[in-house]
Design goal:
The chain has 141 residues and is an alpha+beta fold. It has a single domain (2-127), classed as Gcn5-related N-acetyltransferase (GNAT) (Aminopeptidase, 3-Layer(aba) Sandwich). The chain is 31% helix and 27% strand. The protein is built from five helices and five strands. A five-stranded mixed beta sheet has the order 1-2-3-4-5, sandwiched between helices. A hairpin with a 4-residue loop joins strand 2 and strand 3 (56-67). The longest helix has 15 residues, at 93-107. The protein is globular.
């Protein structure tokens, strides 16, 4: 496990994310520009698991940190885009990714970490220490 690197487009980062949700058509140039922008922003922390023998990513997850005026100008962590490759599911990679992000959130001084999840994934996140608290609502734009 390691941080996302600038050459991970070639190692299938978008293909891995497409096992979770719609990615669309993303060129290597677009991906690289987005990677650079996320690095400059400083509040994105993407971890990946690489199958080094295959030079392919088999897991990824993101922590986004949000600055707040509440809680003494605290920080909130948001876990996003947790996915393990289909052939690796059940091996504990997802839990390793989430726990690594929780360590990052602690190190950054987040007072809480939240995420949105499909109802069918509730059990997985409970095993990672999360509990149902509030209701999520959204508008798709």
């Amino acid at each position: 496990m390691r941080a996302l690197a600038s050459d991970d487009f070639e190692k299938g980062h978008t293909a891995l994310l497409s096992q979770l949700t719609s990615v669309g058509s993303v060129s290597s140039e677009q991906w690289a520009a987005h990677f650079d922008a996320m690095q400059r922003a400083g509040n994105y922390h993407v971890v990946v698991i690489e199958d080094e023998a295959q030079r392919a990513l088999v897991g990824t997850a993101t922590l986004l940190t949000e600055l707040k005026f509440t809680h003494s100008c605290g920080k909130v962590g948001h876990v996003e885009d947790v996915v393990a490759a289909a052939e690796c599911r059940g091996l504990g990679f997802g839990k390793q990714l989430v726990l690594a992000l929780l360590d990052v959130a602690r190190a950054l001084g987040c007072y809480k970490v939240i995420l949105d999840a499909n109802e069918k994934n509730t059990g997985f996140y409970e095993k990672c220490g999360f509990a149902k608290r509030e209701l999520q609502m959204r508008i798709d734009l």
